[in-house]
Structure formats: C-alpha cells, structure tokens
Write a structure and sequence with these properties.
174 residues; two-stranded parallel ribbon; binds coenzyme A; Aminopeptidase
Amino acid sequence: MRGASREDDLAYTLIAERPEDHDAIERVLDRAFGPGRFAKTSERVRERGAEFEPALSRVAVNDAGEIIGVCRIWRAHAGAPVFFLGPLAVDPSAQAAGLGLALTRDAVAACRAVGGQAVVLVGAERFFRPLGFTLIPRGRVSLPGPVDPRRFLWLELRPGGLDKVRGEVGPPVR
Ligand SMILES: CC(C)(COP(=O)(O)OP(=O)(O)OC[C@H]1O[C@@H](n2cnc3c(N)ncnc32)[C@H](O)[C@@H]1OP(=O)(O)O)[C@@H](O)C(=O)NCCC(=O)NCCS
C-alpha cells in the first residue's frame, strides 16, 4: 500500500515484512523504545511460542528504501484463536505523521483478510481507539506476566469474534 502523511512530507510504502528487513527493524525498535523493550510482558507471549506471521506484519519503507516503521503480528490462542499485535514502532524521525495508525490499520486488515476473529494487544487506548480497539473487560484475558488493564485492548474482526476469547494468551492450538 502506498501512503502519504497528512502533511504530505513523508511518502512511504507499506509491505509485508521480509526476512532481509530484520536488522533495520531491530534498529527502529531500539530507537523507538530505547532500552528495556525486552522486559515487557508482551515479549513473554512471543517467547512462549506465539507464532510470528511475517505475511500479516507490515513494515513502512520510505523513498530511500529505508525501514521507518513496523507493526508485527503473531498467531496466538486465548480460549480461541487470536492475533497478538506488537511491537508497533515508528522511527522517531517519522513519528506524528500518521504512519503508526496506517501501519496498524493495514496489519489489522491483513488479519481480517485471512479470516481472523480477534486481535489483542497492549498499548495506549487513546492511540488504538480510532481503529476500533476497546479495553478488555477486567479479568477476562491475561498474559504470562503483569499487564496494566488500562492498556490491555482487543478488537473484534468479525461478528462474534470475541465471544470465546478468554484466559491466558499462549501459543496457537492446532
Ligand atoms: C506510538 C507510535 C507507534 C505512534 O506512531 P506515529 O506514527 O507517531 O503515530 P501517528 O502519527 O499515526 O499518531 C496518530 C495519533 O495517535 C496519537 N499518538 C501518537 N502516539 C501516541 C501515544 N503513545 N499514546 C497516545 N496517543 C498517541 C497522535 O497524537 C495522533 O493523534 P492525532 O491524530 O489526534 O494527532 C510511535 O510514536 C512510536 O513508535 N512510539 C514509541 C514506541 C511505542 O510506544 N510503541 C507503541 C506501543 S503501543
């Protein structure tokens, strides 16, 4: 998908993540999050067997071919199949131009297109609300570690998609 920021000063393309993007993505994550990003509970979900989905994940590439943003998607399970979204990061040089929302919107659309039922994530409600994410009712879903319930969000991808979602987010069940 081809996009441009609201100010039209940041042209970018959104594509599925490719293996060769790995190192550039690590640099964006380091610059956006700083130290401590591996300490997050979301990282425990990924370590414990959530399955990375590069075809549903998105990277933003600028006109110079540089990676300036990433939104990763993982296949997981919490009472029912769910997609776990994160990390989402935009390089500090490209922030506040609409790219974070565009990346998330495109990755969510990819999850819906493959028949996904629900997306779960940890993040700022104010940021994700415009895309339809809402707070998970307290106690309904958990992660393998502490999570601030005011930052624990989900999105229904099709009617009834959240009905069976409950319990701890873990690896996908085949
Ligand atoms: C959060 C992040 C991905 C947003 O990307 P971005 O391209 O700067 O965001 P956008 O330009 O798409 O912002 C869209 C809206 O969200 C708001 N917003 C941006 N970051 C926000 C945040 N951390 N919390 C709440 N709202 C935020 C913006 O103000 C903007 O609102 P507006 O349209 O009313 O001005 C980016 O700032 C980043 O990488 N931050 C560091 C890593 C991080 O915190 N990741 C998110 C984990 S949930």
